[in-house]
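Recap for those who missed Tuesday's class. We walked through two folding examples back to back. For each one, the amino acid string is listed first and its predicted structure tokens come directly after. Nothing is annotated here on purpose, so try labeling regions yourself before you check the end of the notes.
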Amino acid sequence: MIVIPTGDLHKGSPNCSVKHFDRHLKLLEQPEYYTVCMGDLIESALKTSKGDVYRQVGTPQQQRDWVIKRLKPYKHKILAMCTGNHEDRIYDRTGVDMTSDMAKELGVYYRSEGVWLKISFGSGNSRHEDRPYVYWCYATHGYGGARTSGAKAVKVERTATFIHADFYMMAHDHVVNVGNSVYLMPDNRTSIDKETGWETGKGKAWEKKLVKTNSFLKWGNYGEVGGFPPSSLETPLVKLAGTGAPRVRVES
């Protein structure tokens, strides 16, 4: 199974690359591909916000409707949705949750802050024919500002210190960055050491993948004015092995 993040489309921005987004969606036509929608799907520029309200393509409602239409053929491939700060511009001023509207129209589970997913598929885990392989994912839009890749990556690393998962996906910063974090899980099983008589046990190294995700924005507009570098438009692919090691691999 392969999970691809779908976030930071910014439909309505004059810099939105629909070509890259359509290429991204085409991956979902393959049976093993699924996605999580991670916010900022619409630009939603307001007079009081960043972005060019005069040059954006369509109203926020038209942007929302465009995204719904584009995602509808793939709604059965969307595991969940969370919102982003661009959609929150509307919510903060009106109480209208644009991402909730999209999720309801698509029939997809929605939680605004982030989603903690248990992903089960296949069979044969631990040599049991009826036992599926299980992975945990935490996905959220993200927060705050950062200039360097390291400063952007540390936000998802920090999240991994207080939520357990096999992989974490965080959007917002428009820079693809993949890291590993390994911690030791104690094993409840023990045995008696023959030489010392002490009851001893083991620990298992648990590897977590930390993924900062891409955007679909070409360079320019307020990103260029603010001195931010061009961002990657290529999608990271989170591959869940099902069997063997490593359990989780990330490619693009």
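Example two. Treat it independently of the first, because the proteins are unrelated.
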Amino acid sequence: MPFDAAEYAERLRDTKTRMEHYEVDVIVLTDPSNMCYLTGYDGWSFYVPQCLVVALDAEEPIWIGRGMDANAAKVTTRLSYENILPYADDYVQSTEKHALEFVAEIIAERGWGAKVVGIEADGYYLSPRGAGSLRAGLPDARITDITGLVNWVRSIKSLAEIAVMRQAARILEHVMEAGVEAVRPGVRQCDAAAAILKAATEGTPEFGGDYTAIVPMLPSGKGTSTPHLTWSDAVFNQGEATILELAGCRTRYHTPMARTVFLGDPPQKMLDVAQVVVEGLNNALEAVKPGVTCEQVEGVWRDTIAKHGIVKDSRIGYSIGLSYPPDWGERTMSLRPGDETEIHPNMTFHMIPGVWMDDWGIEISEPFLVTETGAEPFASFERGLLVR
């Protein structure tokens, strides 16, 4: 396991403290990131219903999942075997019953059937049918939405987590080098993606890499006008830009970064905007201090680009850390207007002030740690438009 027993015990205590604050007796966690955070559970099993049940009056959480995945819980967690509860395989993709009915039965058997039960109602991994099955199976419980409860516990990292993210950053540097090197005229995008995925997996000589929660983003040419394109078998062309939004991942902890590569002589408008993006990024990073708010940091960026006549209406960053597909963000804080969350030491962010025009765009970003004095970038990589 990537962390010791004391670390997991502290995480569970912090979660229960937050549960008490929100007056919730039991929570049903379906987000695999939160399941992993509290127990270490790690398996590609989130495509079927699974959950972690945490109760205030139970010393240990309960893992509930598909029968064939129960041994994964035994291998990757310290949970007692009596708290690893598999359901039968005929629940999988059944039109007659749902695995959350089994979860409801377990909750009722443990004496929590009339308690306040929290669910992650706005997560990626709990379907409306699953939530309905849980409600139907616990008619005496008060079901409430606790989306984000554990995510916010995760927002301030331990020293052990930060050490793992530093390792992820070393992998990121290797990955970005491989990606930039692969963007050459005539090279197929898929071949560049293969080089990136190889680098991400092999990691460094000291430690290997994990799969990332988001696949490599490689918009090229006119595709750079939008941020979330992947790759095709088309080739990179001279006179065009390519955006690489990549990450290093170590035991599920991510450090992402974006850079833009131009093949040939970039147009002046792109050079000018790249310079503004870097200026705004530098100023916003300089504004990061314990006690300032997320919107204050974004405001520095917005004020900087406004002087150059540029407007960006989307957020410029978000909290990062442990994550599973489809997102490496923690789904808590965002660097944007209206987010008054106060920034604290040991929070970790990805600041990505991308600018997208009608038929071209630029992304230059930095993952960073909040220290007692400011923002410390996790990775070291040339910051600017990369001209090849």
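Answers for example two:
The domain at 159-387 is CATH 3.90.230.10 (Creatine Amidinohydrolase).
The longest strand covers residues 241-250.
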